Amino acid sequence: MNNPGGWTAISLAGVLILLGVGLTVFRPQHAVRLDGSYRLTADVTVLGRHYVTSQSYDYDCARTVPSMSGGTTVAAPCELTGEALRMDLGTRGKLFILMTGWNGDRSGFSGADLMVHQLLFAAQHGQAVPPAAMPVMVRFRDLTNPNTVEIVDPGHLDRSFGAAVEFKSMTIDGGALPRGISDIDATLPWLAALKGGRLSAQPDTLAYRLHGFDFKWPPVQ
After folding, report:
1. What are phi and psi of 118, to 5 degrees?
2. 85: helix, strand or coil
3. In the chain, where the domains are located
4. Residue partners of 128: CB distance under 8 A and separation at least 6
5. How confident is the model at residue 8 (pLDDT cuts 50, 70, 90)?
6. How confident is the model at residue 20 (pLDDT cuts 50, 70, 90)?
């Protein structure tokens, strides 16, 4: 798959997302490996009230696939399974932390493999996440219309969600949550039909640069 908008090619189907910005502090409950299950937890406040949400991801670097020449198997690209972390901020709306990251200079979307390894290294060593590993955060003016997607600045959530909305922290640990009915499919009714493809066919729009795999991989679980 390619990165949104034709930017840097990526080998992973999806990306584990974590953010170190503003008041964000990594406080891993225990060391994590580069291959396994992870739990991501984000904390946002609205008028001082905390909204805390978690999401689990499986990062698999041990898969093999048939060789192009047949007869043998070869190592497959690492794959991340899960869905974007959706935060319900009550009457202020919903924040989506995507399975895609920013380049360090925020000029475009980053490669998945680089971002995942930077994030997990930071989690293992209790370090702040480097700028190159920052995730993309978005909101929709209309949840039923993917063309209404807008970029959200995690350092200024108030610009997208109104006064007194603040991103407080994000943490990672090696735990996992039960996988039930997909929450994001119920929230974004158009997502399943994309099968991982672009949100829009209209070039030069943000929706064109984003894909279904930024929100969920694999498309059907």
Report:
1. -65, -45
2. strand
3. 4-217
4. 20, 24, 25, 26, 122
5. very low
6. very low
